[in-house]
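User: I'm preparing a small set of examples for a lab meeting where we compare how different chains pack in three dimensions. I only have the primary sequence for this one, and I'd like the structure in token form so I can line it up with the others. Please keep the answer compact; I'll paste it straight into my notes.
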Amino acid sequence: MRKHLYGFLTLAAVWFGSLGLLQAQQSTNSAQSSDQGNSPSQDQNTTAPDNTGTNRRDRNPSEPTADQQKENNSDRELARQVRRALVKDKSLSTAAHNIKVIAQNGSVTLKGPVNSEQEKQEVESKAAEAAGGADKINSEIEVKNKQASSKPSAGSK
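Assistant: Understood. Below is the structure token output for the 157-residue chain.
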């Protein structure tokens, strides 16, 4: 008799627990959908990411891309050293850590966006140091929001 009672109580506990999880999941889903619907101003202020121009540029056969990097040991080691120098610097942004590093015939091409002109210079400097000189670096780094940083702030006149 006790075995049946314990079995019944266990079954009831599992059933009520499942109902509670189902209810919590439905509450979360409805909260997310209402959050998305209640903020039209946020959608108007956010621009959709568009890298169509960058993709067109990279289709040009004369533009170095990561898949063109040679598989020889010296270029792979050079790219590894530059990448390690960038990732090691924790003061750089995630964007700077994600710069594309392409080594070809002893020179390095850097591509991608960074947050500021200062960060661009830091990335180029670290890459030059790791590569053995600034003459081995071809920088195609772009500064995000270049227009926003050159505009005067609302408080200044």
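A couple of notes for your slides: Residues 18 and 117 are 54 Å apart (CA to CA). The chain has seven helices and three strands.

User: Perfect, thanks.
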